[in-house]
Design goal:
The complex is a heterodimer of chains A (249) and B (280).
Chain A: H1 3-15, H2 28-46, H3 48-54, H4 56-69, H5 84-89, H6 100-115, H7 124-129, E1 138-139, E2 147-151, H8 155-163, E3 178-183, E4 190-194, H9 196-207, H10 211-221, H11 227-237, E5 244-245
Antiparallel strand pairs in A: 1-5, 2-3, 3-4
Helix pairs in contact in A: 2-4, 3-4, 6-8, 9-10, 9-11
Chain B: E1 5-8, H1 14-19, E2 27-30, H2 40-51, E3 54-57, H3 71-84, E4 88-92, E5 95-98, E6 101-107, H4 113-130, E7 135-137, H5 152-163, E8 166-170, H6 171-181, H7 185-191, E9 197-202, E10 206-208, E11 212-217, H8 226-239, E12 244-246, H9 255-271
Parallel strand pairs in B: 1-2, 1-12, 2-3, 3-4, 4-7, 7-8, 8-9, 9-12
Antiparallel strand pairs in B: 5-6, 10-11
Helix pairs in contact in B: 4-5, 7-8
Classes of the chains: A mainly alpha (249), B alpha/beta (280).
Amino acid sequence: MSSLAAFQREFVPAAVGGRTPLSRRPAFAVYRNTSLQGALSALAATYPTVEQMLGGEAFAALALRFVRAVRPTSPVLTDYGEGFIDWLALQPALANLPYLADVARIDWMCLEAHRAADAPLLDLGAVSDASPESWMTRRGPLHPATRISWFRQPAPSIWLAARDGLLDGGFAPDWSAEGVLVTRPAGAVRVVRIDAAAHRMLGGLRLGETIGQAACAAAALYPQADIGHCFAGILASGAIAGLIRKDLP
Amino acid sequence: MTLTAGIGFKPEHFAEAMSAPAEGLWFEVHAENYMVEGGPRIAMLQSLRGRRPLSLHGVGLSLASSELPDRAHLAALKRLCDRFEPALVSEHLAWSRFGGLCFPDLLPFPRDMDALRCIIRNISIAQDVLGRQLLIENPSHYLALAGHEWCETEFLAELVLGSGCGLLIDVNNVVVSANNLGFDAADYIDALPAQAIGEIHIAGHRPDPRLGHRLLIDSHDTPVAEAVWRLLDRLLARTGPLPVLLERDGEVPPFDCLLAERDRAAVLLANNSTEEPVHV
């Protein structure tokens, strides 16, 4: 082994908190702390709503345990911390906040939307020009920044209330399943709550169904839903990148 | 445009950075913060680049490592270089990756023959992929390591000779390291291979909360110390005018404050302008 590799191999255990002759030197703490701080700051930046709900101190204590267990594997720190979501779900101390991992998931979806590739948004003029029959032959591919998810608990309502500063005023959402749609129209990330019909429609569009197929499937599954209203909401959200004929790639 | 004194760019300063009239002003960003596929962050940098020269400062290539540079990371840096055509591209004489783990830090190593060979190899690989010269920055030191075969200024000179890289001299890092390891900062400045230097950094530091002034931390969260200004003047007297960057990463003041601090560096540059300025 090269002398540099040998040195690095000796350095790493001390850097991740092990007690070695190197780590016992007082100045070594600077290296250990800088690495921890970098990862902790990255987690706080990625999960602002989780931090807001737990409070800075409780979040920092939790994040520190996560960082010690799961170290960054990329120098791009915004890539770090997706595993925090599942890790949160497994923490016995958070059993009284069973929706927290889902809130973290929405934070992560926002990060993904924020840094996703650029692409044109659907031109709403093209929509008003389209004939009703053409919906059966047009697909509506999602914009690269669009993210959708479905939760068994009202995590989207809780997330939105937290961001609006409404959690303290006796906030009590209907305790039912909800979906979330994250988009990036006009360069800023937007989060909206969606119902099961909208979630089904968007999921279909993501899989390459035509607008008509996705709408019919959603209407069949959820007969009470107002599919026209639902589609209008999807169009306004900036979730769709364009309209293309179904026989084109 | 001639690069005079620049400022480390903070997104919260975007509007002021776009409209600042200062002559020769330029901006530097950490490359890793812009390694995203698209979105508002990239759009903002694109706008800034339309107005001002840019420098990409990498913190994650881990060049002082026994391992080869990560190909995917290098490719991401190359994409940024192609997209933004930066005036300067720099990295550190440090490592931050080993055995699949990454440390958001700039870690030290003994400057021996094996390290020299590895680092020359890694810088050469990076420069080949990027198709341009890298400037390599001297790190801050906190720990006296055994096993050095070169002092740092000689080691930097060997890197320049072996890889064709240039140097980025962080004067604050020199002050911090000289204090922490007990060498003379002025001697260090005087021993640098001046012709290889392509950029200079200045920043603030603070004493370690536990150990006090015995251990200075390269914290980038205070104004530039007087000792750093004096050393900058000493270095510029040797090199002539070079792009000087003011770094500030913590307790970031309003843009006007940073601009005023940056203007002090611009004055020093003008006072040391007996040689031809650097054009890009």
